[in-house]
Amino acid sequence: MTTMKEEGNYANRPSNTAFTQQRLPAWQPMLSAGVVIPGFLLIGLAFIGIGVGLLITSRSIQVLELDYTGTETSSPCYQCTMSNQSNCVCKLSFSIGTLFKGPVFFYYGLTNYFQNQRKYGVSKDFNQLIGDVSYFKSPSSDCQPYQRVNGKPIVPCGAIANSMFNDTFKLYQIINGKEELVPFDGKGIAWWTDYNIKYRNPDYTPLKNAFNDTEKPVFWTKPAYELDTSDASNNGFINQDFLVWMRRAALPNFRKLYRRITEGNYKDGLPAGNYSLEISYNYPVISFEGTKKVTFSNVSWMGGQNEFLGIAYLVIGSMCVVMSVVMLIVYAKFRFPEED
Amino acid sequence: VVCFFPFVSPEEERKVKANDREYNEKFQYASNCIVTSKYNIVTFLPVNLFEQFQEVANTYFLFLLILQLIPQISSLSWFTTIVPLALVLSITAVKDATDDYFRHKSDNQVNNRESQVLIRGSLQNEKWMNVRVGDIIKLENNQFVAADVLLLSTSEPHGLCYIETAELDGETNMKVRQSISVTAELCDPNHLASFDGEVMCEPPNNKLDRFCGTLYWREKKYPLTNQNMLLRGCVLRNTEACYGLVIFAGPDTKLMQNSGRTKFKRTSIDRLMNTLVLWIFGFLVCMGGILAVGNAIWEKEVGFLFQSFLPWDPPVDNFLFSAFLSFWSYVIILNTVVPISLYVSVEVIRLGHSYFINWDQQMFCSQCNTAAEARTTTLNEELGQVEYIFSDKTGTLTQNIMTFNKCSINGQSYGMLNFTPLNPLADPNFCFYDEKLLESVKVGDSHTHEFFRLLSLCHTVMSEEKSEGELVYKAQSPDEGALVTAARNFGFVFRSRTPGTITTTEMGQTVTYSLLAILDFNNIRKRMSVIVRNPEGRIRLYCKGADTVLVERLQPCNQELISITSDHLNEYAADGLRTLALAYRDLSEEEWEAWSESHRFADKATDCREDRLAATYDKIEQEMLLLGATAIEDKLQEGVPETIALLSLANIKIWVLTGDKQETAVNIGYSCKMLTDDMTEVIIISGHTVQSVRHELRSVFFFFLVQILPNLIISGEFALVISGHSLAHALEPDMEEEFLSTACACKAVICCRVTPLQKAQVVELIKKHKKAVTLAVGDGANDVSMIKSAHIGVGISGQEGIQAVLASDYSFAQFRFLQRLLLVHGRWSYLRMCRFLCYFFYKNFAFTMVHFWFGFFCGFSAQTVYDQFFITLYNIVYTSLPVLAMGMFDQDVPDQRSLEYPKLYEPGQLNLLFNKREFFICITQGIYTSVVLFFVPYAVLSDATQSNGVPLADYQSFAVTTATALVIVVSVQIALDTGFWTVFNHVFVWGSLGSFFTIMFALHSQTLFRNLPNQFHFVGNAQNTLLQPVVWLTIALATAICIVPVLAFRFLKLDLKPQLSDTVRKLKFSFYDPSVSALLSSQCVPL
Predict the structure, then answer these.
(1) Does A50 contact B at CB distance below 8 Å?
(2) Nearest CA in chain A to B958
(3) Cβ–Cβ < 8 Å for A273, A173
(4) Which residues pair with B723 in a beta bridge?
(5) Average pLDDT across chain B, whole number
(6) Strand pairing partners for B945?
(7) What are the TM regions of this chain, as residue ranges (chain B) (predicted)?
């Protein structure tokens, strides 16, 4: 270090800034009683308020859940679980006591089903699914063992696609002993981004040509381009049911949206009455001790029924209030020395 | 610059022949090219990476990376590890590269310096790097010496030259070097070109003060010593030119041999951190094991049946193998409990703290224009934990500016009266007032004259006389300077010296003495002598030295004088003065001849030369006659008593280790308030034998027992004073514990008459038995060993060169800055580091353990909860800066308060803020948070739907919800932990939160997906999920459940068990009080 004589004795003096001298202006919050106790009280009250609101909202939501696994002999679907029955159809009857307010959402649910398994989750080819036909010929090795069958590439490959849920449902209202079909709306049940961005069909007309020299997934009865025979645009990778299935669930017990009931006479909901659900029972779950169910539900601003959220808010809110009282008592008793 | 270093076996002996390159090349000596840089462009990457991967943590992450490349195991994309690893490696690499660049630059500059080399009879300019061993080089005034050279001849008479060794050992005074007489005549290039002497000498070593070799020339042997050598790094002064023979070049020079790496010091937090990291590894393995067992069971019970939808891979055809793979997969995803950024962040914080120390104006001394310097950047938090300070006295507690204060001449004591200078050569700054002494000088009292004659002759001071009467003395030690100046003012003026003469002006008359021998001073001899022949031809030995060693060597005839002088000496010492006794001896011509012969013989010896010389010196320094004694005052530095008082209030024990005599030391002890009159007893241990020291220690122990018995606590304060010879016994292995327990019961300990080695031993003793953090502070070369062995070494840059500073970890100019270094910077550093570590472990456990809980719901398949980008960025972007800002800027109380309330220092000493217990609390909180973060979304989302009926329980929404909740919870937590919100904290906390959302929306955007559909699977997720009120209600709920208990706990703790810092913090204070800061900074004003 060179000391410049002409600069005097202060040549090496560090600069006098708030930063270097660690004197930056700073806010120094303290957990003072004046802030913490009212804070707890306020948070507590707010949480209680929200909790009550949530609980009331949640209570107003109607839910109807029907298990149709058919493990019990009494179940109408019991016979479908026996041996290798193809195209087995079973009918589930139920009645609704009051109007099931619309729009009603119809879900299917599976339990003990591990869509969140890591290996299951990676078993797909993203490039196929955005419609890149070059990957139709050589699917990603992630798809093993559903990469090829009989030497031909599988499109869409992988375990997720292969295991696509294939039970189908039809709902009838029984009016005067006659079955009247409740119309299902299958549009827009998948995420907008999935439908419009994440999954793309190859640019081929007809779509079938893109799938030349490929095989359908082994468990599928129909190839991807024939998933929806009634609506040509609802085929390939942007088939709504396919999209719903491909958005894998986080937990082993889950439900997925199947259809919405928004049309015709059922726009305002399902009126009270007897109903019959016709299930074409294809999807095997007994082998891995899973169950299948269907759910009817309507929603509020906060989505479907959720008792837990409201109760949790109430509990935490009341705990905050209790804590604030405890703190007040403690504070009054062991007063923090105000001055030294 | 490319230097070649031949690989040769270590030399036994070096042979160098002047002017014979061919001959010298046989030995393949290193060239004069130096390389201090570590890398070049080609080797940088491999060598630097190799070095970095020697760090266990880096290797660990490399291992993880390799694991991730195995597809069966890989539970995470390779980039989740490689991005942070690459970031950490490149930060370190950039730092190393910058350092090395500057080294390259300085190497280049040094290697390309010009030097004049004698080649084939003519002088040619050569670059330093091309100078070779055996070359004869010419040096000119003020030039740096290019290599270690043997001085052959100079332009000055007698082959003398002067050098300054500041770069070598920090001493700024000039030193004399002299060529051996036979070569001194070789003054011009022609003669030198024909010089073909051969030097045989020791192999390269790092001993700066010795050299041993022989010159063979014209069939004669000439011994060579350090006196004949000019070492690389010295600067030639006051000498027109000189010629030298290169003996050691480049890396073999003593300068380079000395620049070895210093021992790396680690802090206790470092060691604790390493232990904890090992524990975390253990924890990681346990978690991996649990989950692997879980996987085995799951695969057997569930996975086996689920094969219809997810068949086992062909290589994974049984559940045990799957469990084995799953173990490694979980090791990969749980690895973030040991975050790679931990070590880098710790280093960054420490670096910041070091800069704050360097920048502190209140540790700047304007008198010497020196700012404090943190020379080691890795020890800062240890400054907040110091329990023992070992301090040197001279130059550390005192100013080391010596003033001649009193003297005793022939039994008469003088001092402290009025004085008017009586001769024109007097030093105007000199103040010593005694009419009587003046009178006795004027009268011509022979003793008085002899006394001052001694002072003017017996020294190693160099003088410079720019113009008549304007004398400047350059002394190696301030004591000597003071004594020679005293003689000068009393009419005995030292004018100049040559190797064979000393010229003085005695009462106006110029006298030239021939200097026969200088018997040098060293720490063992504690005395120096000169043997001179006066113009009349009488030979006399003058000796000055410590009274203890001198009294033994006096003629016993005049016991009365000896006892009176001893009384005076004790009196002076009791006043805290540094004393020396003076004596002389007349030598007959025969005695001198005989001794001179034995001296020459010892001087030529090649082995144990120093010991032999010392023995010879001892032989002649006998039978001396006492002249008197001098007392020199060394004033206390400013603010020393206050600093010591403050530090002892902070529960820091201060031991003074000094070479001074006991009385001086005790007195200084009183004047700097270490010892007080209120003390119950000052225990003095000064036994000379093992038994007596043991006895003394035992009696002290019983004394304590008696004190303790009535009320079981030691009442009253004690101080221990122990002298060096007793200490030697007390440090024996069988007595050290006894000594230690006694010493530690005392409030103050003073060790006097200790050697540098003993200083280090005392420090080691405390380190060994007390497990306390020690700090050694000193200013001189004798403190270096102590500074190096203590946990923290502090060097006072003072009058005694810069060796202590070079060996130290922190350096500044004034002892009193120690209070600020410890109580302010040390305390803050410790506090910040502890808070940083607590939070760091917390946030990583909160982050990582979520995977563990999720394992139970995803078939233990090592499925991560979060998006891979989130995992990659969590530690390096989303949560790194707020905690860094806290670690950098946090203050619980302002600096003035920590000086006002020294007790605030105690938590550091007791290691309260971060220890194993605190660590467990942190990780428990982290694990609790992870439980909340997993199970709240689990409970809420499993049945929740969006407001358009689409279920929310899909994996990606779950991931986004959990990640958002996590980032919010840890951000709220850091907001709670931050006690000092500067603008940086605000920017970083809010910025991190902002960056999380910005980056997430960007990563989930369509643009990125369109370009890389394979990587960005979460397209559209952020906007879809985060628009749902339920998601926000979930996040708010999770945050409340995580934070509310912490808040309540902290509030209640603050109320029920407030720490001192809380109380102080609560006090009303202004952030910046100009009057206070002015007061503090005014403590260092120019005199």
Answers:
(1) yes
(2) A250
(3) yes
(4) B752
(5) 84
(6) B951
(7) 60-89, 276-298, 318-344, 836-857, 869-889, 919-940, 955-976, 988-1009, 1029-1052
Is B948 in contact with A299 (Cβ distance < 8 A)? yes
- What confidence score (pLDDT) does residue A7 get? 44
Binding residue per annotation — B779?
A: yes
- B575 assigned ligand-binding residue: no
Catalytic residue, from B107, B148, B169, B392: name it.
Answer: B392
Indicate the residue of A114, A144, A306 with minimum beta-carbon distance to B944: A306
- Shortest Cα distance, chain B CAs vs residue A177, angstroms: 31
Going by pLDDT thresholds of 50, 70 and 90, the confidence category of residue B400 is confident
Q: How is A164-191 classified by DSSP, letter by letter?
A: ----EEEEEEEETTEEEEEPPB-TT-S-
Q: Is B183 annotated as a binding residue?
A: no
> pLDDT tens digit string along B337-392?
887 788 888 988 999 999 999 999 999 988 888 889 898 888 899 999 999 999 98
Q: What is the pLDDT of residue A95?
A: 92
What are phi and psi for residue B123, nearest 5 degrees?
-85, 130
Strand-by-strand arrangement of the B718-723 sheet: B373-374, B810-812, B792-796, B773-778, B386-391, B653-657, B748-752, B718-723, B681-685
Residue in chain A lying closest to B370 (CA):
A12
Residue B542 pLDDT level (bands cut at 50, 70, 90) = very high
> Going by DSSP bridges, is the β-strand pair B792-796/B810-812 parallel, antiparallel, or unpaired?
parallel
**What digits encode the pLDDT tens for the residues B972-987?**
999 999 999 999 999 9
**All residues at 6 or more sequence positions from B629 whose CB lies less than 8 Å from its CB, including other chains:** B407, B408, B547, B565, B568, B569, B572, B579, B580, B581, B582
Supply the pLDDT for residue B286.
Answer: 95
Q: Which CATH class is domain B113-239?
A: mainly beta
Residues of chain B with CATH 3.40.50.1000: 355-397+636-823
Q: What is the CA radius of gyration of chain A?
A: 31
**Contact flag B1030-A309 (C-beta cutoff 8 Å):** yes
Residue A320 — pLDDT band, cuts 50, 70, 90? very high
Tell me the pLDDT tens digit for each residue of A140-191: 888 888 888 888 899 899 999 999 998 999 999 998 888 899 999 888 899 9
Considering only CB atoms, which chain B residues are within 8 Å of A309?
Answer: 940, 944, 1030, 1033-1034, 1037
User: Start-end ranges of CATH 2.70.150 in chain B?
Assistant: 113-239
Look over chain A and give the mean of its residue pLDDT values, rounded to a whole number: 87
Q: Is B392 a catalytic residue?
A: yes
Does residue A1 surpass a pLDDT of 50?
Answer: no
Instruction: Tell me the two tokens of residue B37.
Output: 């840089």
Question: Tokens 């703190």 appear where?
Answer: A327
CATH 3.40.1110.10 placement within chain B:
398-635
ipTM of the complex: 0.94
Measured distance CA(A280)–CA(B218) in Å, rounded: 118
Cis link prior to A206 (omega < 30° from 0)?
Answer: yes
Phi-psi region of A269 (alpha: psi -120 to 50; beta: other; left: phi over 0): left
Nearest chain B Cα distance for residue A316, angstroms = 7
The answer to whether the CB atoms of A313 and B1033 lie below 8 A apart is yes
At the topology level, CATH places domain B355-397+636-823 in Rossmann fold (3.40.50)
For A164, nearest residue in chain B (alpha carbons): B309
Nearest chain B residue to A28, by CA:
B980
pLDDT band at B260 (very low <50, low <70, confident <90, very high): low
Contacts of A260 in chain B (CB under 8 A): 949
Calpha distance B481→B496 (Å, rounded) = 14
What top-level class would CATH report for the domain B398-635? alpha beta
Smallest CA–CA separation between A176 and chain B, in Å?
31
Instruction: Provide the number of CB pairs (under 8 Å) joining chain A to chain B.
Output: 289
Nearest to B541 by CA among B523, B522, B517: B517
Query: Is B394 labelled as part of a ligand binding site?
Result: yes
Sign of the torsion angle spanned by Cα atoms B943, B944, B950, B956:
negative
Q: What are phi and psi of B234, to 5 degrees?
A: -80, 165
